[in-house]
Fold this sequence. Notes:
- The protein is of the alpha/beta class.
- It has helices at 3-14, 26-50, 67-78, 84-90, 129-138, 157-167, 208-230, 301-320, 328-339, 374-377; strands at 121-122, 142-149, 173-180, 195-201, 233-237, 241-243, 255-259, 292-300, 344-346, 367-369.
- It is globular, with a radius of gyration of 30 Å.
Amino acid sequence: xxxxxxxxxxxxxxxxxxxxxxxxxxxxxxxxxxxxxxxxxxxxxxxxxxxxxxxxxxxxxxxxxxxxxxxxxxxxxxxxxxxxxxxxxxxxxxxxxxxxxxxxxxxxxxxxxxxxxxxxxxxxxxxxxxxxxxxxxxxxxxxxxxxxxxxxxxxxxxxxxxxxxxxxxxxxxxxxxxxxxxxxxxxxxxxxxxxxxxxxxxxxxxxxxxxxxxxxxxxxxxxxxxxxxxxxxxxxxxxxxxxxxxxxxxxxxxxxxxxxxxxxxxxxxxxxxxxxxxxxxxxxxxxxxxxxxxxxxxxxxxxxxxxxxxxxxxxxxxxxxxxxxxxxxxxxxxxxxxxxxxxxxxxxxxxxxxxxxxxxxxxxxxxxxxxxxxxxxxxx
Length: 380
Ligand code: UD2
């Protein structure tokens, strides 16, 4: 703002209508006004003669522009216009209306919201999904959801997919990657626009522990073969589960894990890490931050590729020595997260079992275990 504008504003605030006291006399203002008018007229003639005015008015209307669009708009905005006021009236600026964050009022005071390495812990009440949805839609993100349904576990697919269509990444592009040995038994669930089911036929193994562990190998191999060309993020979950509330882009980050519902409040010593030093999954008793669930982790394709590669290699090294970690691939995942810290952590809202009852801190139970008869379903 120039000195003249400042002076005029000052006078308006003071309720003065005559000369601006302490700055200019009425005569001065008259001279400045005439000079300004002359300058504008001269500038207009100059620019018209050089043909630099735009014939068509500029209109900025997109709130969802890509980077290139942003650059185009940026260059357009720099061009002068013939109809300044008219153009200003046509500009539709992006609107982002929501409750302002309050520095002195933390959104939750009953739970930890940030790890010591500055990774957010996702709890209901700590984020605004409208802001996040806008950010991820601008990037036109596609999310891959991997799920294994080997042998009798295909029975869980229907409920899993139906509830995912209601609650998982609503409004975003999703590829469901279903790993199964029984492709003909994959149910046909109606899908919303932008969502696809991709059935990937894989081999089965006699032992359920082997099936569970081999997920690391298969996710790793498909990350390299296809996910890298098709999706931005990979989310890896168990199939004997149902979505019960929104699970959206708030979970996405380079590398994320989920607090295991049985251990989120436990001390380090009670975590069921692998404690035998001979195993590649070994974690010493004085290390580790949290105990993460094997049934919900993910990240960018590159980070998931690195994680699954490391875990699969460790599983194979153990196998060569005749060792199987106490909680199979979950133990290896936990070891990985001790030394490769997740960039985001999901609260137990994202993996809960109602057999554990309800908890005051859980404002939502988003992804719930489906009760199963182990004897009837495992190794079958
Ligand atoms: C726990 C973990 C699981 C894994 C397992 C390792 C959670 C919620 N669950 O699950 O992630 O670490 O322990 O022991 O943290 N599967 C088949 N067919 C089979 C067997 C397994 O498809 O015959 C797949 C299926 O996707 C299943 C997953 O492997 O959801 C894990 O097996 P589980 O659910 O039987 O193991 P569970 O519930 O003890």
